[in-house]
Amino acid sequence: MLPGWGRNGRFVRARALGVSRVLGTRTAWTTVGDGEFFCPGCGGDRNYQRLAGRRRFTLLGMPVLPRGATGPVVECAACGDHFGADVLDHPTTTRFSAMLRDAVHTVALAILAAGGTCSRTSLETAADAVRAAGFEDCTEDQLAALVEALAADTGRVHAGPCGAGLAIELHEALDPLAPHLAPTGRESILLQGARIALADGPYTPAERDALATVGAALTICGDDVSRLLAAARTPS
Description:
InterPro entries: DjlA_N, TerB-like. This is TerB family tellurite resistance protein. Residues 103-227 form the Co-chaperone DjlA N-terminal domain. The structure is a single chain. Helices cover 51% and strands 22% of the residues. It is an alpha+beta fold.
């Protein structure tokens, strides 16, 4: 006879069921924060509540003894699912788009500043990339003015090595974005910078230095950076 069947089996199961109805645990949740997040269950941006809980033993459904804290958890206001607090580390769709747009803009300025001449072809290539990333009103003249302002503000010589200030700006724009991009996405940003650098001729040493900084901020290893920069030189 299979376990759980027959007179004795039915008795054991009934007894266990009876005990579970008498004794149990219950969690009381308290809202400690709210906001908007990317819900893995819904697959989109949703409102959430951040909950902290306290567990208690129950007797006949009534809480009698504390059992300690639990959580915190994040509860989606749409689907009601609970997730670990680390889900808030993932940017919302809106925030991710803004991060990507700012990253492309920063890379374009860095490569233009490294190139020195700011030729019309380089500016056109950079403006196309920046507009595609989300700055729809970006123009070549705006980028040229920003590069000049950047050089004046930092006292940086055009076509010099990627200075500490520019390297910091690249890392500030790219470091938070890199963990949320697939390898192809990280490579795409580097290749956009490479195309800007190549628009007016071969890489200069300063452009290579700036692109190496971009690759490092995107967590692309040095060998892959070299491979991608070489591939960008080859017409498709």
